[in-house]
Write a sequence for this structure.
């Protein structure tokens, strides 16, 4: 990567990180583009090189954060000796749950803003060429498993929706039970989803 490209990447990441901080601190409605560029230390014109408006940066930020989270989970999986696809998917889910338990602000941000359309965009069409294509990694796991699956995208959708909806109250409010108590039930259910999609 040349110096110019590196500089562009750093400016984009600075804008994303600044927007994330301001969205968490002030809320999206009370955060302006002027606030973001001032805190990031860039000109307003620089913002418009990367983003259309603050809702575009929010969507790209959701995509960026989700892509980072799932890429880290897949990298962690590569360090393990897990060969069965069911266990690989549950490992990834557990990694994500643990990171969101550690970073409740990220959990709140993603839960408020992460619809399937934005999430699918994060997985299939990363917000920049530097972001990993997580969906390709998922399809590679399935291909390497030696198993055939009916509708793997639908299977992924069901798992993501299940995990996202089940963990929020459990992590933040320990309702209906604390997350450690919920995990075995959650992962058993993921196992059933996977089995029901195997041909």
């Amino acid at each position: 990567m040349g110096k110019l490209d590196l500089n562009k990447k750093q400016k984009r990441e600075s804008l994303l990180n600044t927007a994330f901080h301001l969205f968490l601190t002030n809320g999206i409605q009370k955060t302006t583009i002027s606030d973001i560029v001032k805190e990031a230390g860039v000109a307003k014109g620089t913002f418009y090189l990367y983003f259309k408006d603050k809702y575009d940066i929010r969507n790209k930020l959701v995509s960026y954060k989700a892509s980072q989270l799932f890429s880290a989970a897949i990298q962690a999986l590569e360090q393990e000796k897990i060969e069965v696809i069911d266990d690989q998917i549950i490992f990834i889910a557990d990694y994500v749950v643990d990171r969101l338990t550690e970073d409740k602000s990220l959990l709140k941000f993603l839960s408020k803003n992460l619809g399937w359309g934005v999430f699918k965009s994060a997985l299939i069409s990363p917000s920049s060429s530097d972001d990993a294509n997580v969906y390709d990694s998922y399809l590679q796991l399935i291909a390497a498993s030696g198993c055939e699956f009916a509708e793997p995208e639908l299977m992924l959708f069901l798992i993501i929706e299940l995990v996202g909806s089940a963990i929020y109250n459990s992590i933040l409010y320990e309702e209906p039970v604390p997350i450690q108590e919920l995990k075995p039930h959650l992962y058993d259910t993921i196992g059933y989803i996977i089995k029901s999609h195997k041909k």
Remarks:
- The two ends are 44 Å apart (CA to CA).
- Residues 103 and 189 are 24 Å apart (CA to CA).
- The chain has a mean pLDDT of 88.
